[in-house]
Predict the 3D structure of the following.
Amino acid sequence: MALRVNAPAFRDLVDEDAGVEQLGSGCTFTEGPLWNPDGFLLFSDMPGDVRRRWDGGNGFTEVARPSNKGNGMTFDLDGRLVVCEHVTSSVVRMDPDGTGSGREVLATHFEGRQLNSPNDVVVKSDGAILFTDPTYGRMPGFGIEREQELDFQGVYRIAPGGGEPQCLADDFAQPNGLCFSTDETQLYVNDTDRAHIRVFDVAADGTIENGRVFAEGIGTASLEAGDLVDGMKLDERGNVWVTGPGGICVFNPEGEHIGTVEVPEPTGNLNWGGPDWNWLFIAASTSVYRVICKVSGNRLPYMR
C-alpha cells in the first residue's frame, strides 16, 4: 500500500506497512459498506441490483437480489438496517441481515413529490435519520431513468418518532456522503458536483445552520474520471475520511488534507468495522478492500 503523506499526523492514523487487502472482486460497482457487529460486512453492488455480505469464512455471498439498487446503509437505534434505495426513491428499514425481511418504508416523498433517489444515510444518537437525495438513481445504470419530480437536490431529516421528511438544505448540486462530528454538534455533507465538503452547525431542534465550505477541490467532479467526493466517514479523533483522487483522502478537523490511502480502483464509499472498529472497509468499483488502521471509527450508536 502506498500512502501519500501531506502532514506527519497522518502517520499516526495508518501504518505505512499496512496493506490494502482485496477481500473480493467481480462486482459491478460497490457501495454502502456496513459492518454488522455479529461479524460480517454488508455492502451494495448497486448497478448490479444485489446486496452482498462478506465474512472471513465464506467470502462474498448474496443476501438480496433484487435489492432495488440499494446504496448507502446504516443501523438504527434498534439495530435494524436502514437502506437508501435508488429504484424506489425511498429510505427503508428492514431486518439487520439485509435479506429484505421485515421491510418498512420510512420516506418516499417530500410535499407530495417523489424524492429523487436517496443516496447515503446516518442515524443520530436521538434516533433521527438524516439522508441525502441527489439524482443518481434517475440515471441509466444507477437506477431507473425517469423524470425528476422535485426541482432541487436536498438533505433531509426524519424525526426520531418518524413522519414526513423535513428538508434541512436545498442548495446542493448533488449531495452525497454525510457524517456527524464526534459530539454531533456539526454535520458534514459533501457535494459531488462541486467537489467540496460543507459543514453545518446542528441546532437543538435538529435543523442545520451556518453552512460553510470545510474542504474543496476534491477531484474533478467527473463521473468518467472516477475521482469523486462520495462516501464519507469520521474517525474517533474527528478526522474526515472521504473518497477522492487516488483513494481515500483524510482531512483533519481544521480541513487540512493530511494524507491519502491509495486504492487501485476508483472508490465509492468506506466504513469502519472489525472487533475494535479499526478495520477500514473500502467499496471500490468492482472490489471491496480492507485496511487495518491505528485509529478506529467514530462510535456511532450501533457501534457502542
